[in-house]
Structures are given as C-alpha cells and as structure tokens.
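Fig. S4 source data, part A: sequence.
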Amino acid sequence: VIIMVCLIVVAVLACAAVGRAADATEFAATPPMGWNTWCTSASCGQPGKFEASLHDYCNEAMITSTAQAMVSNGMLAAGYTYITLDDCWAAMERDAQGNLQADPDRFPNGMASLAATLHGMGFKFGLYTSVGPYTCSSGGRPHPIPGSYKHYPQDARTYAAWAIDWMKLDYCSWHFNDTVLIPEKVTKEMYEALNASGREIWLNFHCIGYNMIPSEWCKQYGDSLRIWEDHHDNWNSTSGIIEYMAKHPDWVGPHAWPDPDFLMTGGAGCDNLTAGLRCPGQTEDEYRTEFSLWSLAGGQLMVSTDVRNLSAFQRDVLLNAEILAVFNDPLKQIGARITLDIATRTSVWLRNLTDGCVAVALYNANNKPETITAKLSDFPGMKWNDSTRVSVRDLWAHTDLTPAVGKFAQTVPTHGTFLAKVCKL
C-alpha cells in the first residue's frame, strides 16, 4: 500500500518569517554546520553501553586539536564553522560573584581565551547550559554542575563577555523539589537575556522531550530547535528521528531551524580518550541514510564523532560537496516525505531547489534490500507527468544515470538511502 503524503513542499515554509532575528538581520538565515564534543570519546547510546559510557568529557587539548584538524581536513572550508561544547566544560560551582566558570582542570586558560583562539582560526564557539539548577551530567566529577536557574541574565552576560556565539539550552533539572519549570516561560527568559546581552548568540534548545510537545511558541525564541529526543549511535534511534521528521516537515524552517540532533558519522567513541578512535554502532549504509535525510529534511548538521583522524568513509560523507549543496541550497526549504509504502517500509522524500531541480531520496527502512520507484507525477508542485524526461544525478556515487521518463527506480540496501538531484530535460 503506497500512501501519498499530502504536504506543502513547494515553497519556503510559512515559518520562515518567524524567529528572533528574521525581521532584523541575516542572523540565523542559513542552517548551521559544525562539531560538538558529545560522542567524541563516548560510545553514545550503543545498546548495553549507555550507563557506562564516557559521556560529558572534554578538555582544552581536545578542542584545540579538533579545531586544527577541521582546518587541515577541509571541514572548516566546507562550512563546518561552529565548535560547541556539550555538558562537559563548567566548573562544579560558580565563582564568588555567582558567575559560571570553566573547570580549571579541563580548561585552565578559561573560556574567553579558548573563544579567542577558535575565532582566530575562523570558527564560532558555543557552550551548553540548562534551565534548571543543575545540568544533566557531572561528567564523572564528584558534584553536580550548576545550571542557569535564577541566573539567566547573568549567564547571558557572561557568555557575551567571553565572546560566545552559541548557547545550547537543555532542560535537565526542570523539575526539582516542589518546583516545576514551565518550558515556554524559562526559554523566553533566556531568549530575552541573550537579546539584552549586547552580542548575537545563537539559541539552540529542546522543543520536545522532557514531557514537552512541539509548540508554536518555540519558533519565537530559538534559532534552531531540537525536534526529538537525543540521537544515539544505533539504528533504532536514527530511524526514530527520521520518522519524526517525516511526520512534522512543516513545523519549523529558516530562522527557526529543525535540529534532529548530532550526526554519528563514522561511529561514536570507544569510552576512552584515545584521539581518533571510533567504535561504530551502525553500518555505513545507515550512516549514509542519516546524512542524506539530515541534509534533505533537517536544518542542522552538527557532527559529534571524533574528526581528528577522518577515515576515508567519514571524509566521503562529511565532505560530500554535492549533498552539502542540497543542504545549503539558497531556497532554504525543508524537505519532506511525499510517498510511503507501508508494506515494504520504503518512502520517497523531496526537497525543491533554487535552480528548479529537486533533491530526491529513496529511503529503505526495511531489514532487506528493496526496489523503490519514484514517480514524477507524485512530485508536488512540479507539474511533471508520465511523459516528463529528467536527468538523475546520484549524489553519493557522483555519477549521472541514464535519463528517465516519468519515473525512475533503484534497489536500495537494508536501511539505505539513494539520494539524487533530478532536473527536467
């Protein structure tokens, strides 16, 4: 049974006009790309490993060596401009004036110094905090890490003083003692604090999870919004996020970019601090699917695996210029699923491009290879039919296939995705 999914995918989404900077500047007008610390050392949710994994560890040497690698391996030039630290950087207590401070053992030179170093290399720099009194994890330290509760304006000023470019706002400890924080209220408070800080700081926050559901208010306060739960390095997690993106394609857009969470490209860490060591939890086809659909239907590409010694596979994925061109297409449209075959667990996804062509993904969620057919007459808004002749460019193989008339088909491996650029001839 093939279901036509009735979605608006032919114009920039209505939410393009929302977001805190949309009516003033070009800030957050394009989707972000970068790297985050979260799974560099940790196995990041592979089955049976989560509780023992080395979550929330980072230090100055890790950050500077990663930045140097991203310059030399071409990631910075390809657009991966943000370097962001997750719940791993702050000291166990605030200073005497109540300010957040860096963990002195992990970051002996402090955050302002690190920000200056990264800015000098051409990067933007981001830090994590939480709305509650504590963050999510102590990162192996003997005391909880302070969150931003009752310190929103102060912490926003601290970030601005350090020349921070990005804040990830988590919702850990939102429910403590007899207090229950209201997500809309506390997010608005931090949004207003950042706006009053005197510096443009990208605000990324959870708009789902922690008993939250997607709400219109989220688009008013964030520059990118987490649309589902944490992404872990296993197929159940990846496929779950893809399904959520399929069901909610028109929820966010430019200036309020959908964040499907971190990319696990090439495999998360191995729960030790060996640089460049990865222990993959998914197959190469699954990682290609992740990157294909994050690029076509997501609004944020933030890698969280170790990129200091890129494997050939990681390089082929993360530096795929043709797929990155789809992600960064000036039309700034979020792609969507247009057909779904329930019996075979296959689907066709589409994203309109500025040049009048479309990016098309044939996604196979089944546990065996499947042949997937894309009918041109199913492409919303294109006015193509059974007689329309098109070129089909395989964006993974970087080859032009035989021109197609009315439809084209590919046999797609288990959990794989065929991604193409299709243009009318």
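Fig. S4 source data, part B ends here. The two ends are 31 Å apart (CA to CA).
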